[in-house]
Amino acid sequence: MSSVFYQKFERHAHGEGLKGLSTHYCPGCGHGLVHKFLAEAIDELGVQDRTVAISPVGCAVFMYYYLDVGNSQAAHGRAPAVALGHKVANPRSIVISYQGDGDLAAIGLAEIIQAAQMGLPMTFVFINNAIYGMTGGQMAPTTLMGQRTTTTPDGRGRLMGQPLRMAETIGQMDGPMYVERVALFDNKQRTRAKKAILKALRLQVENRGLGFVEVLAECPTHLHMTPLETEEWVRDEMVPMFPLGVKKDLDIEPWFDLGTPSFEPDRVSSVIGGGTEAPERFGTRFPTHIHLEDVAIKFAGAGGDGAQTIALLTTRTAINEGYDSTYIPSYGPESRGGTSYADVHIAAGDVLSPACPEPHILVAFNAPSIDKFGPTVQPGGAVLYDSTVISTPPSLDPSIRVYGVPFTQIATDLGKRMVKNVVALGALRAASDLFPRESFLGAMRETLQKDCAMLELNEEAFTWGERSLGEMTSPASG
Amino acid sequence: MVTSNVKKVKPKPFLFPHLCKACGRCIDACPKHCIVFGTEIDPATGFTPVTVDLEVCNGCGLCITACPEPHGLLATPPELEGTDMVVSDPFTYFGERAQTRPAPAAIPDQLVPLPALQPMVVKGNHAAAIGALLAGCRHFFGYPITPSTEGAELMARLLPKLDGVFVQAVSETATVNMMYGCSGAGLRCMTFTSSPGFSLMLEGISYMVGSHIPGVFVNVMRGGPGLGNIAPEQSDIKLVCRGLGHGNTHAIVLAPSTPQEMLDLSMTAFDLAFRYRNPVIIVGDGYLGQMTGRVTLPDHLVRPGLPDWAVYGDADHRGNVITSIDLNEPDLEERNERLNAKYDRMTQHEQRADPFHCDDAEWIIVACNTPARMAKGAVRALRERGVKAGLFRPVTLWPFPIDALTPIMARAKGTVVVEAGPGQLEDELRLALSHAGLVPRGPLAHVRRLGGILPSLQHIVDTVHALAEAHHE
After folding, report:
1. Contact pairs from chain A to chain B, CB under 8 Å
2. Pick from A56, A38, A35, A34: nearest CA to A48
3. Residue B396 is part of a domain; what is its CATH number?
4. Do B343 and B369 belong to one domain?
5. Which entry of A23, A30, B255, B404 is 20 to 30 Å from A311 by CA?
6. Would you kindly state where each structural domain of chain A is located, as residue ranges?
7. Does residue B458 share a domain with residue B318?
8. How many structural domains is chain B composed of?
9. Do both B309 and B370 map to the same domain?
10. Chain A residue with minimal CA distance to B110?
């Protein structure tokens, strides 16, 4: 007996009596043979210590009673996902995902297809016995047409769909390296099955690729036949539907190499973007001329206007100045085009609600935005809008200062229409005196540090935005 | 590696009749017809074992290959050649080689100092991802879903730079099972998801709880039921506190309310998940996930060790198994008792709350996540108007921090639960009160919005104010 089997099955009925030495499988069941071939292959390749076997749901749920390897028992259909988790956790481990036909070809189709196409070197063993064993003889996805089961009492008909040929399905995919269908019904088939399982495991041990072996197995209990009759049934009835043989066999070089995860503090700090230099502060006071402790600004436009970027820049500026600040976009389908709104709060203490239903300042890039949010601006607040796009702003509360600035025109004159948002930010600074010019430029530099050319252009755009406000201020409502 | 020149020896088979299930595969396999069905029923098994006549056996071994039982037909060891193996006792023969191997020592986690880093300006989802990286998570499995996706996207960008692994799964169902595998190997892994995706993960979470497997889930809650919308709601509180899949399940549920807490609690979550060998759920809301704010970084990161129970795929951990099935009822009851004991420990040690102006409060507002921010503002506004209000913010929704709330409520004239949901936080409060044998003093009122609308500060102020006024009259 292979030493990959436990000498005593202590997990089977606590190892008591004969159960401690025999499997829970019915006489003539194919599972026992496949377990044995697996154990012998693990033994032959010398990988017992590194092996993790995934037990499925189905009759093989207790595979972990028998194989003396690392064992993990998966939910129904999910063995390939569990296997993948184990494999990427420890790429040196040898992971065997073992499933029956209900598990792999019905409830778990998505998982096996993903894992197979990914092609990580793992070993998949698929037991196809054309019936559900553990639940007591119901139709499997591989049940033959006309075959009687407890859920196809008159034989499998068209409304139950047709049997799935998994080896062919997996075999035509790009991910796997080796796919074969074997059987157990005579000496020759058993020898082939043994070899196929060994090969599928070896490909993993050599780090070369994914092996998938479908085994036509016997379930005498639910086919209501003797074990030997079942062998004949598999040979005569199943094989014509599920032809034996190699479906795919590539010869490729080892490819699978995952590095060892790094926990090196400097590397981690740099990857998460943690800076060690404190940003320079320029402001001397909270912008109490706008609000004593909590300034609310709304940026609104269409997707692509850049409202989100300058909202983030404003928040970054405020935080660099030592205040609490939040920025929240309206998001989702809207942010993939259509409208794009962003709310910014700057608080002397903590920001409370991050939303701005009644902003102090509105920056609007198009007519729908100013129409929608203009009326929500607080009395005494300010509205800046793109006068290139908006020809007639709505009339608002007379206490609100309204600035029309040709964001788009200025940006176009600068040669890059997309910097119109930075023009707007410059205009916002000039109109609100929120924070000093230098602190906005500092935040911009932080954000664009890797792109000097863009930085220069953006600084220019910001400056033009500030200046143009001075030249063109025209409180619309007097 | 074992090279088999054993094949040349051609040993003959032997069989313990007790261990033969009489399938007859060996009969069919033997070209020399040495094996036949027996005639005597073995009283120990009820089977009729085959009988083996080795007279003409040439040791081809085909019967051994054909036998499905590990202890069935075996090759006779050379030293026993010639003995009458058929009548031997299998219990003596197979001896007492134990399957259980000595458990390896757990490799402890290490705290590694970080250079002094400046505060970052990041959104809540990113903050939680950064927290996970600092907590030593190097494996991410997930399926994109708004409004949580930025967390996954950041992990996809950063993990390869740390030689970690990012896998976009075929579904949330696959996601949670990949986590089951990776956590089962003893490693720190996580996912980001949002309500509909979280629903799909519940089955897997039940398996993780049943198998004592850690794992961190960030559920950035959105509007439901069904496809709902992508605006912030708090309608998964029922699920995370009472409905983590089938069976007797619980997990510590952390409810951050700022991007800073998204980072801090993400680190805490990994610590708790491994301390208790249980999943930990972080529930945010859509606002919190999307909100950008100031985040201060810790002064250390975690270099995770490897727990003793891991199925890592090496010699030390070969004896371990991860499973949640116990066919034997007393075994399953014992597993559940062990879970219950764990839930008790969590309830005793892990209640967390953040009270704000609760010391002298007459009116207690209970709120978590983003609505707690509005509630905080409401407390200030109410105090300016002379109403002694306080905010009790549960940071753990399960276990509910009833111990901290009890003395606060004992002084209160009334309580208002504020939530962006249909009353699931209030249900948790009511259950906790009931279990603690407490009856709230005064009215237990609420401010609720649904559909992704958050309760406004004014709405809260008005509600509490009206209660206070009514109390005076």
Report:
1. 359
2. A38
3. 3.40.50.920
4. no
5. B255
6. 13-249, 294-472
7. no
8. 3
9. no
10. A263
Judgement on whether residues B414 and B465 belong to the same structural domain of the protein: yes
pLDDT digits (tens, 9 = 90+) for A433-470: 999 999 999 999 888 776 777 888 999 999 999 998 76
pLDDT 10s digits, A234-258: 999 999 999 999 999 998 877 767 8
CB contact under 8 A, A353 and B373: yes
Residue A446 is predicted with a pLDDT of 85
pLDDT at A352: 87
The confidence score (pLDDT) of residue B175 equals: 98
CB B181 within 8 A of CB A97: no
CB contact under 8 A, B45 and A18: yes
CATH number of A294-472: 3.40.920.10
Spans in chain B with pLDDT lower than 70: 1-9, 82-88, 95-101
Per-residue pLDDT, B1? 43
Q: Which tokens belong to B215?
A: 């794992």
Asked if B100 lies within 8 A of A258 by C-beta distance, the reply is no
Chain A residues 325-354 within an 8 A CB cutoff of chain B: 325-329, 331-333, 350-354
Is B118 within 8 Å of A277 when comparing Cβ atoms?
A: yes
Q: Looking at beta carbons, which residues of chain A come within 8 Å of B4?
A: 44
CA A200/CA B183 separation, integer angstroms: 26
Structural tokens at position A255: 């490819």
C-beta neighbour count of A291 within 10 angstroms: 17
b/e burial code for range A384-411 (CB count within 10 A of at least 16 → b): bbbbbbbeebbebeeebbbbbbbbbbbb
Question: Three-class SS string for B395-421?
Answer: CEEECCCHHHHHHHHHHCCEEEEEECC
Q: How far apart are CA A19 and CA B71, in angstroms?
A: 11
Query: For residue A337, what pLDDT is reported?
Result: 54
- Closest by alpha carbon to A212, among A195, A199, A198, A200? A200
Dihedral, B269, B453, A341, A385 alpha carbons, nearest 10: -140
Give the nearest chain B residue to A353 (CA atoms): B374
Question: Domain A13-249 adopts which CATH fold?
Answer: Rossmann fold (3.40.50)
Residue B48's domain comprises 8-94
Total number of residues shown for chain A = 478
Over residues A392-410, the pLDDT tens digits come to 999 999 999 999 999 999 9
Distance of CA A224 to the CA centre of its chain: 45
Name the phi and psi angles at A448, rounded to 5.
-105, 20
Domain assignment of residue B101, yes or no:
no
Q: What's residue A355's pLDDT?
A: 87
Find the helix or strand (DSSP H, E) in which B112 lies: strand B110-113
CATH number of B146's domain = 3.40.50.970
A219 touching chain B per CB within 8 A: no
